[in-house]
Every structure is written in structure tokens, then in C-alpha cells.
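User: Continuing from earlier, I have the next pair ready.

Assistant: Great, send them over.

User: Here they are, in order.

Assistant: Folding the first of the pair now:
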Amino acid sequence: MVIFLEREIVYPDSDGQPMADNTKQFRWIVLLKENLECLFTNDPQVFVAGDLLWYPVEGSPDIRVAPDVFVVLGRPKGDRGSYRQWQDSNSKFEKSGGISGEQRVKLLKHKIKKVLPVIKDKISSK
């Protein structure tokens, strides 16, 4: 006789890693995340998050990443302990990014000018 036991899969809300490696990196993460929030403040169907664990595959809690900042179009705003893609209509990120190291921070200023118009165009074409 074979007995199958169903066990609950745990998707932790924290990976125990720091949000940033230094104060400059932290400021950039917060600046990007909050400016994206402001950009999409009037659209209830744009979810913006920072340093939130993303689980793309149901049943595989070891497959995860915590982008510094990400945007998901078509998903409602709101608090989440983690972003479990299958629970959010399988919606993937529109844009995600990380900030690591001094060189990355220097390049970020240039990239911001390119990324925001792309996101605005996506929203206006809906």
C-alpha cells in the first residue's frame, strides 16, 4: 500500500539578504521605486515593487529572485509578501532592474531616461 502525503509548500517572504550593499545603492533603489509609483499613481492596474521576492514557478520555491525594482502592468496595486506569478494571472514583469556597484549606479542615470518613456508608451498604448 502506498500512502501519498500532501505537504504545504512554503514560499518565504524573505531571503535574508540585505536590500542594498551601501547607502548610495539604497537611495537609488528607493528613488526608482518611488518615482515609478508616482508615474503610475493614477493607474490601479500597475503593480510596482522593490526588493520583493518573485516566484515564477508554482511548486518550486527555490526558483526565486528579488529584483531591486520591478513593474507589472495589468495587476492591481496592493501589499504582497512576495510576487507569486501564478497567483497574479501569470503576469510577468514589464521591467525589472537591479542596482549593484558604483559602475551600475553611474550607468543608471543614463538608463532612466530611456526606460521611463518606454513604460509611458506601453501605458498609453493600452
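And the other member of the pair:
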Amino acid sequence: MSSKSMEKFWSIKNGEIALTAQLCFCCAFIWLIAGGILGVCLRSFFIFNWELPYLNWRHAHSHIMFLGWGFTGIVSLLFLFMNQANVLQKKTLNISFWVMQTAILGMLYAFPRQGYSTMSITYSTIHLVGMGVFLVVWWRIIDRSLLEKQVFLSLAWALFFLILSSIAPIALVIIKVKGLAGSPIYHLAVEWYLHFHYNGWFIFALLALYLNRFKPGFGNAHVTKTIFSLALGCILSFGTNTGEKLNTDLGFGLGILGNILQWYGMILLVNQTYKLTIITKNYLSRLLFGLFTFSIVIKFILQGIASIPPIARFAISSTSLTIGYLHLIFLGGLTSFLMASAIENGWLKVFKHHQTILFAIWALGICGMVVILFAQAFLSIPNIQWWLLGFSTIIVLIVAYLGISTIFINAKSKLTTYNLVQ
């Protein structure tokens, strides 16, 4: 891509698309705060013994973070790939977007009250339909002239894995109707959703955005090899879950092969990109992109180790290891990347003299939570729930600070502009 095209792309020249992208991110950020507060409440359940249905609140937390923050946050950056849309396409995008936001609000109401029920499943289905309509229109109007082949390829794989993961919620309804809730096939469907959502949709959407941002030698065939190796590895590595649930050696074998392919892709990618984050002008963005890279590398290493059969059986059966792994990807990887991108685009703003301490506290919160969750599977840690509550609170406070500092800096900028005009 030429430097002129780069400037046009990253300066967000089209006012309407820029406004839509920023508005989309604002909605995602609100869901991040809401989901974070739910996370803190979940941690307090074990300390204060609230007489509330814990599992229902956990479902609410996961859906708000997955769909409200994760999906909507990624979509805010995908907006920037779009070309000019006609009137019908704009209306369809706007309607489907607000249908999704309304459905998320419905899930926030329904899950804590009823858990998986007719109401919550209805809202989930509405979001799924809105998501499908939105992405079909988006795919038709993305500006392919601004995208390198490898970026487009990563986006295609991301959408493929999103569709693949979306099969699971439909399957779960059927499984429940047939009275098989709690069976191996039920748990396998849950793991299918988590695997292809986290290791597929999230990773490849972020990979596309990462490649588009840092341009790691697109003429080099290693980049294309990386994408295919990671994609095939993602598909095969689900064999580990199948092997554990159905006790099949074939599943474990495919899982090990898949993780070898993912390690190969990871090594190629790191070799191409490990020096590129230094081109980021904003200091805090550079640190956050670094944390994203570190988290994703650790994710691949842990996933590979967990493909060994005895370790796989222990890891999959351990709730704390699973939750720690998911938080590593979601907070260290996805959230750090989205925040770094938002800061670069001017959607989040931080005072310069706060950047280092802000990052240090953010990294402390994430690393502390993940380490404690992993350690919980092996050790008896005194006051562990207080530690987890503390780290959760740190993360939510940092998010709140980012929102407050953005509002304050924007208000200060507008006041300065008003005084100059006067």
C-alpha cells in the first residue's frame, strides 16, 4: 500500500465513516465498563456470599464482554476498511448495528434474572441475525484497493471462524431440548464456541488489523505462510478438546499437529514483526501493542503445551486454568490491542505524564489476575478471592480512568477553542 493510501486510511478522511467508527467504539467501551463491573461483582460473590444465582451473572458477564466489548470493539476498527456505501447499505448497517446493541442490552437484563431461558436465547438469536446482516453488508463494501492480500485473507479467515463458532449456540439449544445438557457432547459444543471464537475469530480479526497497521513485508511469502499455518492449526487443534471429551487418540494426534502448525506460524509472524511496534508514535499505544504481542505469544505456548494428552485432560477439566487462559487472550491480547488502536485514532486520550504509570497498573492487574488463576489450579492460596477481587477492581478502575480522561481532555480542548474564537 502506498504512503498516500496509508495516510488516507489512518487519518480517517471520510467524516461519516470516522464518526460511525468512533460512535461504535464508544458503545463498545460502555459495554467494557458494564462487563468489568459484572466481573468485579462475580469476584465479590465468593467473599460476601450474595444470595444471587452466580451462574446467571457469569453468563451475563461473558456475553457482555464477548459481544458488547469484543465484537463491537473489533467492528469499530473494521468500519475503517469500508468504501463509500449507498443509502440502502448505510441504513442496513445502522439498523443492524443498533439491533445488536439493543439485543446486548436485553441480554444484560435477561441473563442475571433467568440465565439461559427463552428471553435470553431470543436476545442472543436477535444479535446473531443482526451480526450476520451487518457483516454481509460490510463484506460487500470494504475497499479492497486499500487492503493487501494478506490482510484480506486474514479477514476472510476471521469471518469463517466467526460463522463456525456461531454454530455452537444453535447446537446447544437442540442439545438441551433433547435432554442432553451436561453430556460430553454438550460440553464439546461449549468448547467449540470458545475455541473458534477466541482462537479463530478474535485472533484472525486482530491479525488482520495488526498486519494492516504494521505492514510486515507483504512481498514476503512468509506472511502468507503464517496465515495458512495459523488457520489450519486452529482447525486441527480443536482435536485436543475432542480427544479429551470423547477419549480418542486421533483427536489428541490432530490437536498436537494443529499446535505444531500454530507454533510454526507464530515463529514466522514474530520474526517478521517483533521490531515493528517501535514505529508507533504514541508511547502508551506502543506499550499496549507490546503487551498484546506478549500475551498472544504466551497464549500459543500454553495452548501447545496443553495439547499433550495428560496435560490436556487436566487443563480442560480445570476451571481456573480455563478462565485464566481466556482472560489472558481477552484482556492482555484483545483489550490491549483495541485500546492501543483507539488511542492512535484519538478515540481514547490520556495525559502524557500518566502514560507510564497507567500502563504499569494495567499490566499489573492483568498479569496478577492471570497468574493467580493459573496458580489456583496447583496451589492453595490464602485469601485468593480477595486477590482476584483486587486485581479485577484495578482493571475496571483503569478502564474508568481512560473514559474520564478522554471526556476531560476533549472538554478542555473545546473550551480552549471557544476561548480562542471569543
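Worth noting for the second one:
The longest helix spans residues 384-421. Confidence is low (pLDDT under 50) at residues 1-18, 416-422.
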